[in-house]
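Inputs:
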Amino acid sequence: MDGPMNVQEFDFIEDPVLRGNLERVSSHITNLRLLALSETYPPQERSSFRKTVIIYAAAQIEAVLLWYIKQQKTEEECASVEQFFRVDQHIYQLSSRERIVRGSDVSKQQKFKFHNVNLAQLVYLCQRFEIIPKELASHIQEVRKLRNRQHIGGLEIIDKDYTDEDVAFALRVSEEVIEYVKCQR
Amino acid sequence: MNIYEGEPPKASLQTPMREFQEYHNVSLGADPEETLESFLIRKGDSALLGYLRAIQ
């Protein structure tokens, strides 16, 4: 008989390291979500549990999106191309602010490494390649903004309490992302 | 005193609530033998329920 220990999570992911890390995060999300329901803890601590759930949910969305994009694109394809005009020769000075030059239009491929990419860049790439729906991208951005409130150095107001609705939103977007990438395989 | 020993309970819908309550030494208002799934349905926590169903 299958017991809880035999349930395979994230079975659509073949990489055992990634799957193991995603499973650990799911365990943390579940435990912290349950602790946030317990009146054993004061409201501020329960808010802190909720905040941590949001951070874990965003980390999991980021990992799943990275996995998803790696299935379809190479680092070279993801690298953006910078286009600029290169001045090869100054020909004539017209004034202190103007000159006549000879030059060329140049394209330069930017460096891109999967291991350096963040959630904002992943959403941008998924939209650029049109591999996730716009609405899903918008939901992920909302989770990212919630998650980014952990960077308290840049906040203009004292961070408010995290609510059950915030957590529910982050978990629903996680579900949406996971179900979407599963269906695309 | 450190009340935590071992790994936290697995985030499976079939995990008995007893494991969560004993591991964290808290009461979540759950029947110890009910599963996480039935607890979440009873609590109306559709977000965690949907998330856990998606990953399993």
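The helical segments of chain B are 17-24, 36-43, 46-55. Flag for discussion at group meeting.
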